Amino acid sequence: MSSPAASPKSVTAFGADTCLHWPRWALVLVAFGVYLTLRGYHSLDGDQAYRLPLMLHMHDPLLYAADPFVRSFDAFNPHQGYLLVLDGLSGLIGLGAALFVIYSCVFIVTCYSINTMVRAVWPRAGQAAGVVAVALILIAKAGNIGTNHLFEAELLDRLIGFALGWLAFSQVIANPERGRLVAAGAIGLAQWIHPTLGLQLGLVLAISWFAWPLVRGRTAIGFRVAAGGAAMLACALAPGVWQSLAQSHTLFEGLTTSEFRLLSIELQGPQHMLPHLWSSPQWLAWAGYFVLATLALARAGEASILETQDAGTAARARFALMLGIVLIWLGVSWVAVEPLGSVSATVFQPFRMASVARGLALVALSARVFRLASRGDTIGRVRAAVLVVGLGASDWAFVIATAFELAAALGDARWPRGRFAAVPAWTVLGYGFFFLSRHDTASGHGPLLVAVTTALVIPWKRVALSFTGRAPSSGRVTRALLISWATPITALIVGCWITCVAETLQTSDRRTPRWLYAVATHCRFAAIPNDDTERIALWCRSNTPLDAVFLGPPGPKTFRLWSRRALVCNRAASPYHARGLNDWARRYRDIVNFKGTMNELVATYVQSRHQLEHRYLDRSDDDLARLATRQGAGYVIADIGPADQPRGGKTSRLERLHFEGEWAVFRVRASKANPPANPRLSTSQKPRGRTEG
């Protein structure tokens, strides 16, 4: 985070005359520690719960050998590049360490890329605005159409893809001729890690290479440089495109177009693909990004720290044109997905670029937020605080923050330096608090009220001066690092201790206080179970055969990963290609005991998913045993049952082995008509803990 005018190891944080002389590595580490402290680190959960079993099976084919979901990826696997990277590193340092090492690299690359882009677009304010932009990227939650966050608290293949995309865009915006090779390599790697996201990022960059020379008087890019950049990009994308085309024939094979749309789009993941499902506050908040970005770019020539005609003019033109291309991409995608109803365009998930558009808008906004915070007046500090907090509070809160900023800008234009300039802004903010208290289910007025109070009460100038003026001592840097990393380090120590105690006692985790688990799972570096599903899954890993197949409720995501055992069906973990989808839908219908058509299933699922999936728990013991036999499972995960008639009685076909909280694991007893689907427990795998019998 350096500048030509500053020391290579210092950052100007509050303006040209006040410098924050902190080492760059310290700034990154402090930012990372603060992020982990506030947001946590959530490994072995969410999307990882059905990505990682694919890697574990790749490493050991005996794991999940009979799992329908895992084996469906033998035919079509878009995650292969990501899994190969993770498998190679985890083989050297272990899975948990590999996840965090890659996650740390993604964080560093994201910070570097966003800062580089800001320094290019806003040269005079870039050193400080880069820090602001990174903070905005990490905070941003509002306007999340497409449900892909800019940065998340767990490692995902799309998070790696976004980081590589930021790296590519920052290089060509800052220095197109020198950065085009790095940009092409980053896009090629992104496509290998996440094929659809990498290809979309590549297409945006390719269109930019064609568009920039058309206005070369503003972008300072000629046709020769653009042709070279486009050629490098094509070479980088070619292997990934060829690999995707080699698998593409299996994607739609086995279902009609209408059936595939029904299963893959309307049932599997409509929240990612269908714009009409996104709420009005989401759309309004998303639009707020570009209203503010337009305001920032339109005022780029005002007299202040922002520049007129300088080294940032061409970079700003390239940046603005790329942002426009992304917005046009999203408009065309909406036409293809909604009015035209194209299945191919929909499963391509083009609205991932909505997150890229938000990130670019925050780069444009960062200099404005910095200017407001540093100009010295009260209303400026309040405006900056409201924008930042509204961005992370809720959709409606950010809509109010956008309206507040527009009103303030209107007041500045109508009464420059006048006593009435702030009246429209305070009026809008007052009404905004009233509106949020009545309409915002996320209670966004609370964080905004805290932001306004903090901006009015805390002497920010004194705080700023305490961090500027001279280089910090090594002791001060050390204290900042210790404070920012206190919670993550504590979580790591507690997690290691809990793991050692669990391995020593070989008992349930109930002996350990709950608050220690809360600390360890806030930043989950070790495999510490966080709920009853994960606890009972760990028991099954230790006490059932490797080839055991389980039937369980379709809702919980983590049982397959934590148990390392095959699961016949899970709602969140569904295949991508037609044949796998067809098998998954058949199993899902059988598990939720739905007798209607597939169209009726989708309609029921959308209206009342939880009631639909509760049908699994309403089944009797014998019904669950017959269902398990049909699905090829020898073990069942279900609720314990009512106190007066618990599941797994002596006459039941389910034999209860163990329970954790609301869940119990049962073995299907053999009958003459239905032999057991899996071998019984061996004597060396005798159940421990709260075991029945």
Chain-wise SSE layout:
Layout: H1 24-39, H2 48-59, H3 68-72, H4 80-93, H5 95-121, H6 126-139, H7 157-174, H8 176-193, H9 195-211, H10 216-219, H11 223-248, H12 257-268, H13 270-273, H14 280-298, H15 312-337, H16 343-347, H17 353-374, H18 378-393, H19 395-414, H20 423-439, H21 445-457, H22 460-466, H23 474-505, H24 514-522, H25 532-543, E1 549-551, H26 559-563, E2 566-567, H27 578-591, H28 598-607, H29 609-613, H30 621-631, E3 635-639, E4 654-660, E5 663-668
Parallel strand pairs: 1-2, 1-3
Antiparallel strand pairs: 3-5, 4-5
Q: Summed up, what is this model?
A:
The protein has helices at 24-39, 48-59, 68-72, 80-93, 95-121, 126-139, 157-174, 176-193, 195-211, 216-219, 223-248, 257-268, 270-273, 280-298, 312-337, 343-347, 353-374, 378-393, 395-414, 423-439, 445-457, 460-466, 474-505, 514-522, 532-543, 559-563, 578-591, 598-607, 609-613, 621-631, and strands at residues 549-551, 566-567, 635-639, 654-660, 663-668. The chain is mainly alpha-helical and 693 residues long. A hairpin with a 2-residue loop joins strand 4 and strand 5 (663-668).
